[in-house]
């Protein structure tokens, strides 16, 4: 069982920045594929960014490319999502997710690729 604890959400004005953190339990964190997803009211949960593999391959949804950065610190069992130039449409509950199985590019973008989820953290961007 992997437990994920997120932090860093909040209220910010458009153009501002936030950094989300997600700390995972487990002794093999470096092997986990990690993803950040978000879900706005009435919308489906969508991938924001994912990081996987020994090389730390990353991918992003087009709408955040160039503004958000996913990274990980294996020594701290933590994955981060640095969010810059935030827009009101980024408002959502953000979830951290982990997979202990190897994920490909496609599966890393799907909620079903991940077995473990955090509780979510609210990000609100005001105009």
Structural class: mainly beta
Output the helix-strand order. Answer: EEEEEEEEEEE
Q: Specify the overall morphology.
A: globular
Helix segment tally: 0
Major sheet description: 7 strands, mixed
Share in β-strands: over 45%
- Helix share bin: under 10%
Number of strands: 11
CA radius of gyration = 13 Å
Task: Give a verbal description of the structure.
This protein is mainly β and 127 residues long. It is built from no helices and eleven strands. The strands form two sheets. Strands 2, 4, 5, 6, 9, 10 and 11 form a seven-stranded mixed β-sheet that branches. The protein is globular, with a radius of gyration of 13 Å.
Q: What is shown here, in short?
A:
This protein has 127 residues and is mainly beta. 0% of the residues lie in helices and 48% in strands.
Task: Reconstruct the topology from this structure.
Blueprint: E1 4-7, E2 10-13, E3 18-24, E4 33-39, E5 46-52, E6 57-60, E7 68-73, E8 78-83, E9 92-99, E10 116-117, E11 121-126
Parallel strand pairs: 2-11
Antiparallel strand pairs: 1-3, 3-8, 4-5, 4-9, 5-6, 7-8, 9-10, 9-11
Properties at a glance:
4-stranded antiparallel sheet; 127 residues; 11 strands; mainly beta; globular; 7-stranded mixed sheet
